[in-house]
């Protein structure tokens, strides 16, 4: 597995860590002999998908990921050419030193272009068909009822909450404390935790950056990419962002 790049958050959050003796298999990154020198992070394989492996830091429970597409960059993420055969629960030791940071998961600095407010507010209508159960609690801002609600490996209600939290922070508005994330999946809880920390995935960041410009073509491309994010995740995230804009900007325009 050739790691080519990583999220800047991997570097910042694991800087100066020394794991000591971390074994490595000749066949790949499982654990058998000590590394010597350098900085490494010891992680356990938690979830495996076609283009992504999600890893858990045993001590903190934090999510890390290895992905094969730069479109899937997020906080604490490495980019690789391919995913080797892995087993759930297997321990990996992944390097930080010497890998360039290609993606910064922090919120973009640009302000929202008010031209796009009516368009973004229309994205609330994305809660239809299989997302219809989210519509009423989303409209009434019953955030506790949205937690863990809906389809998807990250339930769509959590994607809505992540979009709402990210939108509020980006717009400089206060956010309420997260609901009890122990009531949803591990991955969703980690995504919500990152959102509350102002950390975003690349598809989401591309949408926010496009909303600060006056380029309709760039915004359309960013929206198309996030709509292809999981089966329902992109739609639910955009609906959450729409609610944040409605609560923060539309009422003051």
Q: For the largest sheet, list the strands in their spatial order.
A: 6-2-3-4-5-1-7
Number of domains: 2
Percent strand equals 5-15%
Write down the overall geometry. Answer: globular
- Return Rg in Å: 19 Å
Distance between the termini: 51 Å
Query: In DSSP terms, counting alpha (H) and pi (I) runs of 4 or more, how many helices?
Result: 9
What's the SSE pattern?
EHEEEEEEHHHHHHHH
pLDDT averaged residue by residue: 88
Residue share in helix: 25-40%
The secondary-structure class comes to: alpha/beta
Q: Report the major sheet.
A: 7 strands, mixed
Uncertain ranges: 16-37
Number of strands: 7
What is this structure, in a nutshell?
With 253 residues, the chain is of the alpha/beta class.
Structure keywords:
253 residues; alpha/beta; OB fold (Dihydrolipoamide Acetyltransferase, E2P); seven-stranded mixed sheet; globular
